[in-house]
Amino acid sequence: MTMIDALQIDCVELTGPTSGEGVMHLTSYHAQPQGYLNGGATLAFGEILSGLLSNQLIESNQFAVGQSVTASHLRPMKAEGNLIAEGQLLLKGKTSHVWRFDMYDESHRLISQVTVTCAIVPKNR
């Protein structure tokens, strides 16, 4: 089982040349002890999503890996339903990509903002 499977990340797709989205289906697995979404799960979702999206934008002999992840958790959310990410590619360089994701609940309330820098490395490194 991969972390993508464990976190129940789904529906990852580019929605434009510099945008993408994905969904994380939430369960008690994603909860901290009080039943709210664990911030670490949100960070992992952002890093995974950025890598999956960047890998669709680069050459086949390259691979995107997470280099830096920062987040601001703006509103608590119970670990149930879906966390929906809408992302913008802020920088598409030769050796790095920078993504910013707005993470929403199903009522489109902003839960977190996550920024991820991906290093673009040779696949056979």
Automatic annotation (TrEMBL):
Alphabetically ordered keywords of this record: Hydrolase
Signal peptide annotation: none
NCBIfam families: unchar_dom_1
Keyword Hydrolase: yes
Protein name listed in UniProt: Thioesterase domain-containing protein
Coiled coil feature spans: none
InterPro entries: HotDog_dom_sf (IPR029069), PAAI_dom (IPR003736), Thioestr_dom (IPR006683)
Annotated Thioesterase domain residues: 34-111
MF terms in GO: acyl-CoA hydrolase activity
Pfam families: 4HBT
CDD domains named among the record's database cross-references: PaaI_thioesterase (cd03443)
